[in-house]
UniProtKB/TrEMBL annotation:
Family annotation (InterPro entries): TadE-like_dom
Stretches assigned to the TadE-like domain: 12-54
Keywords: Membrane, Transmembrane, Transmembrane helix
Record-linked Pfam families: TadE
Annotated organism of origin: Vibrio galatheae
Residue intervals passing through the bilayer: 12-32
Protein name from the UniProt record: TadE-like domain-containing protein
Length: 146
């Protein structure tokens, strides 16, 4: 009889520990997931900028001088959509990124493509007055002169 009461008390203690530990563990798992999603978005933005800079410097045909790049509109389309012309079925490689988020700077023999995007975590789907968005900026630079 004494064993049964001790076992019942232990089960109650385990339930209390679970009630205390579960929210902390769930919050930790959500934080790890959000951090991973932000890193994936940042990596994708970096790849988008690299593809844009590569397109800007290698897709020149019939140029008489070295220091030239492709049309900026085509560069921005390649960065955002993955191809130089935008059609009806074109969608951004990263949700929320538009061509206005991409800047192309061509000066002093270098071209720089920069993508600025605000990452919005899933936690903002809950009603909150706090702004949780994180600015992500990715940039790539390449020389256009020999």
């Amino acid at each position: 009889m004494i064993r049964n009461t001790l076992r019942t008390r232990q089960w109650g203690l385990a339930a209390v520990e679970l009630v205390i530990a579960a929210p902390v563990l769930l919050l930790l798992m959500m934080a790890i997931t959000e951090f991973g999603n932000a890193l994936i978005s940042y990596n994708t933005l970096n790849k988008m900028a690299q593809n844009g800079i590569r397109f800007a410097t290698t897709e020149i045909s019939g140029s008489a001088t070295y220091d030239q790049i492709v049309d900026e509109t085509e560069i921005k389309n390649v960065v955002v959509y993955g191809h130089k012309t935008v059609g009806e079925n074109s969608s951004s490689l990263v949700a929320g990124v538009t061509t206005s988020d991409v800047t192309v700077d061509h000066s002093n023999g270098y071209v720089t493509v920069t993508v600025a995007h605000n990452y919005t975590p899933l936690i903002t789907s809950f009603n909150s007055d706090i702004n949780f968005s994180v600015p992500l900026n990715a940039s790539a630079m390449m020389r256009t002169t020999p």
